[in-house]
Amino acid sequence: MVLIVGSGVGGAILAMELSKANIPVTIVEKGPFCDVADSYKYYDEIDDYLDLSKTTCVGGSSVVAAGNGVRLLEDELKEYNVDISKELDEVEELLDIHQMDDSHFGEGTKKFIEAAKSIGLPVIKMPKFIREEDCIQCGKCAWGCPSNAKWSSQDFIKIAIENGAELIDETEVTEIVTERDSVKGVKVKRSNGNEEIIESDTVVLAAGAIDSAIILQRLGLKAGEKLFVDPFVTVGGVIKDINYYKEVTMNALVIGGNFVLAPHYSIILNENISNKNTSDNSDNNSGNTGDNNINEDNIKKGDILSIMVKIPDDNHGKIVDGEVIKENTIKDVRFIAEGAATAGAILVKAGVDPNTIVSTHLRGAHPGGTAAIGDIVDTNLETEYKGLFISDASVIPEAPGAPPIIAILALSKRLSKYLINKQ
Question: ∠ at Cα 169 (383, 180), nearest 5°?
Fold first, then answer.
């Protein structure tokens, strides 16, 4: 029996592929099996060092992902003797990754594309794993899709269960059980507080870069020492009644040398614009705040057009005693500033009142690197303990600067082939 810890991107496809090959599978998930539309209720608490956007539920953070199917890390992983080219092709077909139809591009995204092109920036439609026929264009991708139009890991978990896999949810894996140099199972804590050991001589950690690292540290492995977290801010301002917040989020992409840009709504901007305006109006030398006569009372969600600025991170973070330790370097600040300035230029060209442009605080996405290939796992994603594998963002050795979902799926699909061939 293969025991998989975590039901997110890495664990779900592994469970599906192994169960389809008639290999007994048990999936242990810390969070509950909720409806996708309710997944926003399971966001983790904000970290003291960086606001990491991740959820704890069946399907992991895939249930609140934006549906971006960017193909990446193909060449980088070849440097580590890991070739996922074939698996990337298979995943793109499996999820039907494609650029969405023009019918699913709203006014805000169109303005982003036109403005970026007009100032000479390379802009493309974002590859997505969203089904147009089900998408109601509500803008709630990051809150859990209410119409279930977007692929998530829950889809693969359901297929795995149909093929005989067992899912144990609301159960936390606290320790890996080993005997000499081999894995023998995991110690778990049930939601009622009861503890027990689930035995297996093949265990795959897929709990995410942070939780997997914490479990590995308890085993004595030096995981969690090279954490990366792609930093990002959202920059936006006012165009009255643009209604971007209802559009498919991040449906276009600009790839710069040190950053990527994509249209993205954040509710934090409403408060920040109001605060900026209040501050401006209290200063006798501030002048007016623009032709839109923006004030605290008339700013609506529908009045904001905004852009995410995301940069690739260095492996300078750490996980210590279960806490994320992450500081931003001078390079991070420079890249964010460069990207934010470019985003501002696009916004102004698109018609945003320049006096209203503000930014969110720095946040983080896509944690990884905590149990990297070449450090903690070999090219088959196996640790120094026989039968103990890792298959999530932990194993990615370099920050992608973009959503790594497709790369993680490809790595796990590659691992599934290895495990099936071992049977």
Answer: 25
